[in-house]
Amino acid sequence: MAGYLVEDKKKVTTNRLIEMKQQGKKIAMLTSYDYTMAQIVDGAGVDVILVGDSASNVMAGHGTTLPITLDQMIYHGASVVRGVKRALVVCDMPFGTYQVCPSDGVANAVRIMKECGCDALKLEGGEEILETVKRILQAGIPVMGHLGLTPQSINKFGTYAVRAKEQAEAEKLLNDARLLEEAGCFAIVLEKIPSDLAKRVAEEIKIPIIGIGAGKHVDGQVLVVTDMLGMNNGFSPKFLRRYADLYTVMTDAVGQYVSDVKDVSFPNDSEGY
Ligand code: KIV
Fold it and tell me: Of 14, 61, 64, 269, which one has the greatest count of Cβ atoms within 10 A?
């Protein structure tokens, strides 16, 4: 068996993630948006699969995460859940489904859980959405927080640059992490913030801190699967490590197919009935 494939086939739970932090075991998290990719990602041993609202960018071609709808997230989430045996599946609540008021937030959260069959939800923000986070938790739904560069607020930020470089924003982020932990969240994603700040949060907060562009002193890492597989050759932020060049592999394969069809070398006699 390849070294990266896990022997442990037991379903990952939110409690197991907290135990992993206590035992100093790092958490590997990746996004997925469909059944086939989810089967590969789960089979390779990823602990947490995020049905990210980055589907809006990488699946639908939008410029931001804002346009994706609740129905579209439910479609992606249910497709991923059908492909997963071991990983914890977390689904993003899309923009507009939890910011209006807590009762809307709970109703939409319940709908995602019922229709996707996922294990938990992720919401962006701290103090501003705390009441909603508490109400969703009271409904028995595990919540993962998301602080730092929260892409649903891109119009407020006006830039995808690193967040919380200034002391006031760093203190607010730390306080938001404390509030999310006290409320009962099981983990928090920190996106694109200075490594020293992420380290401080991971040391103080007892629930797992998962970073993306937040350095190595956190409890786990998350990347967008299509980015780390090199399927999108136009996106290369500093934090991204590419583990494959699928853009080239896939383009070559499709190009070869086109050429084979045109010169009638596909199909050959053994590829017919
Ligand atoms: O939607 C997403 O892919 C995310 C990750 C970048 C954490 O929220």
Answer: 14
Ligand 1 midpoint to CA 122 (Å)? 9
The H-assigned helical ranges of the chain are 14-22, 35-43, 55-58, 70-83, 102-116, 130-138, 154-157, 167-183, 195-204, 225-228, 246-262
Q: Note down pLDDT in tens along the chain; length 273 residues.
A: 465 677 788 999 999 999 999 999 999 999 999 999 999 999 999 999 999 999 999 999 999 999 999 999 999 999 999 999 999 999 999 999 999 999 999 999 999 999 999 999 999 999 999 999 999 999 999 999 999 999 999 999 999 999 999 999 999 999 999 999 999 999 999 999 999 999 999 999 999 999 999 999 999 999 999 999 999 878 889 999 999 999 999 999 999 999 999 999 999 999 999
| 174 and 267 part of one domain | no
Residues 258 and 231 both lie in one domain: no
CATH assignment of the domain containing 59: 3.20.20.60
Three-class SS state of 73: helix
Any idea which residue has 């596909």 for tokens?
266
User: What is the Å distance from ligand 1's center to 269 Cα?
Assistant: 47
CB 54 within 8 A of CB 94: no
Task: Note whether 128 and 263 are same-domain residues.
Answer: no
Residue nearest to atom 2 of ligand 1 (CA): 52
Q: How many whole angstroms from 2 Cα to the centroid of ligand 1?
A: 28
| Residue 264 structural domain | 246-273
191 is annotated as an active-site residue: yes
* Ligand 1 lining (C-beta closer than 6 Å): 31, 50, 52-54, 92, 189, 191, 212, 222, 224
Taking the C-alpha atoms of residue 50 and residue 66, their distance in angstroms, rounded to an integer, is 17
